[in-house]
């Protein structure tokens, strides 16, 4: 069992930056990958970025890869999402998720990001 706790959300003006962090606890050695998703008001949850836990390969949603960076720290069991040049459309709840080889089965509670123009 793995537990995920996100932090780092908040309110920021357009053009600013935020760094979101997700800390994993429990049987982290069984994780295959971790990811960030987001859900804006009235919209479906969407994939943002993922990273292979062992190898560190990162993958991004095409529309976001220029402003978003994901990286992980295997020692501290954290995955971080750096978001630059924030836009009002980035306003959403950002969720951390873990994959153990098949699907994104474990989720954090989410952290709110609000971007004002």
Question: Any overview of this molecule?
Answer:
The chain is mainly beta and 117 residues long. Helices cover 0% and strands 56% of the residues. The protein is built from no helices and 11 strands. The strands form 2 sheets. Strands 2, 4, 5, 6, 9, 10 and 11 form a 7-stranded mixed beta sheet that branches. Strands 1-3-8-7 form a 4-stranded antiparallel beta sheet, with no helix packed on it. A hairpin with a 5-residue loop joins strand 5 and strand 6 (58-60). The model has no long low-confidence stretch (mean pLDDT 96).
User: Span between N and C termini?
Assistant: 40 Å
Shape: globular
Helix fraction, binned, reads under 10%
Main sheet attributes: strand count, strand direction, barrel closure: 7 strands, mixed
**Proportion of strand residues:** over 45%
Mean pLDDT: 96
| Count of DSSP-assigned helices | 0
The helix-and-strand class reads mainly beta
Query: Unreliable stretches, pLDDT < 50, 5 or more residues?
Result: none
Tell me how many strands there are. 11
Topology pattern, helix = H, strand = E:
EEEEEEEEEEE
Rg calculated over all Cα atoms = 13 Å
């Amino acid at each position: 069992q793995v537990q995920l706790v996100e932090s780092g959300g908040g309110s920021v003006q357009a053009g600013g930056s935020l760094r979101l962090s997700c800390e994993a606890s429990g049987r982290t050695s069984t994780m295959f990958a971790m990811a960030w998703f987001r859900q804006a008001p009235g919209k479906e949850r969407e994939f943002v970025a993922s990273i292979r836990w062992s190898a560190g390969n990162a993958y991004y949603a095409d529309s976001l890869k220029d402003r978003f960076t994901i990286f992980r720290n295997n020692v501290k069991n954290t995955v971080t999402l750096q978001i630059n040049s924030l836009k009002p459309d980035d306003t959403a709840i950002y969720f951390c998720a873990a994959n153990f080889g098949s699907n994104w089965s474990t989720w954090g509670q989410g952290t709110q990001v609000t971007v004002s123009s």
